[in-house]
Amino acid sequence: MEVVKTIERVRSLVKKVRKQDKTIGLVPTMGALHIGHISLIKTAAQRSDFVVVSIFVNPTQFGPSEDFDKYPRPFEQDSQICRDNGVDVVFAPSSEEMYGQSSLTWVDVDKLTEPLCGRSRPGHFRGVTTVCSKLFNIVLPDFAFFGQKDAQQAIVIRRMVADLNMPLEVVVCPTVREKDGLAVSSRNKYLTESERKDAPLIYEALKKGQTMIASGTKETRQILDEIKEILNRSKLIEPEYVEIVDAGTLQPAEVVESELLIAIAAKLGSTRLIDNIRVDASKY
Ligand code: AMP
Q: Listing from the earlier edge strand, what are the strands of the sheet with 143-147?
């Protein structure tokens, strides 16, 4: 495995791989790798001949009051995880390498970036889509792997790839959870002991929503009330949004039909957690 810091070097490596008619899989990450990232890497290794993991804490997707400086950067540990999981190249550029000459160009997806996380994180998705476009242009992958954990991000990227005719397939992998249901996240380590104890209520609430849909409840209002009641069991959970939206448009759904996303963002102290469940209502 090679750790690469420059765009030039990664380009020359993938050029050689392409010449051998091998497929390339890219797993974009911000590092602090955990079992969620590892599941993406493993899927990438199954689906592609050559796996590139990018590790880049992308400044343009953080708001001014967010945790960019404080974001964990355990680089040696991350490299070891990549080495142990069959990664061919870790691409870990500096901010200067990625945004050297101050960039004037942004990639922005309309509408899908406005609801849910878009409301409280203005500019976040523009940072994500711009950095992913840059990574796609540098690595030229056949497949790019994203987690369902960040459902809105995956939907936005898939739309960008389709709208801009980018020649790659976006693969969305299931959310990896702790035993008690909490979605694994690099930010979980910020939780205090009592916050960590209450955090699984988020998944419990999502599951309740899923069960209500499966057992025939049709009004989303009724489901949202139950979900909020479960979250209210903890004084430490401050919901930012609790929504049931159409999984294609991300617009609120009033009645249960088609593919839905039940999505929650909540603060526990200063830590913001997100989670979701996708439900295909046509199955019930
Ligand atoms: P991040 O490093 O947080 O930007 O995440 C990099 C990728 O890993 C994104 O596509 C995330 O959706 C994905 N990811 C993060 N946590 C999980 C998880 N618990 N399960 C599956 N994928 C995840």
A: 2-4, 89-91, 50-55, 24-29, 143-147, 169-173
Q: How far apart are alpha carbons 202 and 149 in whole angstroms?
A: 13
Distance 125 CA to ligand 1 centre (A): 15
Specify the pTM: 0.98
149 lines ligand 1 (CB under 6 A): yes
- Helix or strand or coil: residue 205? helix
Q: Is the CB–ligand 1 distance for residue 151 below 6 Å? A: no
Verify whether ligand 1 is closer than 6 Å to residue 146 (CB atom).
yes
How do strand 24-29 and strand 50-55 relate by DSSP bridges? parallel
CB 165 within 8 A of CB 144: no
199-238 residue pLDDT tens: 999 999 999 999 999 999 999 999 999 999 999 999 999 9
Contact 201, 181 (CB under 8 A): no
Q: Which ranges of the chain would DSSP assign to H, the alpha helix? A: 7-19, 35-47, 75-84, 95-99, 117-120, 124-139, 151-163, 193-198, 201-214, 220-231
Q: Is the pLDDT of residue 137 over 90?
A: yes
